[in-house]
Amino acid sequence: MSCEIKKTENDFVKEQAKINEQYSTLERFVEEHRKELAALSSQQEQDVDVLLQSLKLRKETLMRYCLPDWKFVHNIPIYDIEEHPMVLRDRMMAENLEFLAEKMYPKEKIIVWGHNYHVRKNNSKVKYVEHEQNFLNNMGDYLLFV
């Protein structure tokens, strides 16, 4: 027998805020101890930047993606297509790829691979025949340098 506790959206948002504050505390710690942390790594500043980007991504996932995903799972309507979990996920993937290309490896070539749905350009212009509508925006739609 399963005992499932139904949480409301308000409960979810309260927990979300607590976790976000914990990530913010960790971010501040890394920033305040940047030099000491960099000294422990062979890549120095670059590893600290990757750590901060990872924390940023976790916070963004928590704050931008998790609530729309929670709503989607609980069959709560999403009226803004840009807030659909799949669209948010692809936008965040594009932002992370831009970070890697512009900040971490600005003078390097980068090879990107992934499922066709995520990497193709102009995904939102492709007609989804079965549902008589266009596909949602994907990572390829959001990339500026592709």
TrEMBL record:
EC numbers for this chain: 3.1.1.-
Biological process (GO), any one: response to antibiotic
UniProt superkingdom: Bacteria
Keywords assigned by UniProt, alphabetized: Hydrolase
InterPro entries (UniProt xref): Emycin_Estase, Hydrolase/PRTase-associated
One Pfam short name: Erythro_esteras
Name of the protein in its database record: Erythromycin esterase
Species for this entry: Priestia aryabhattai (Bacillus aryabhattai)
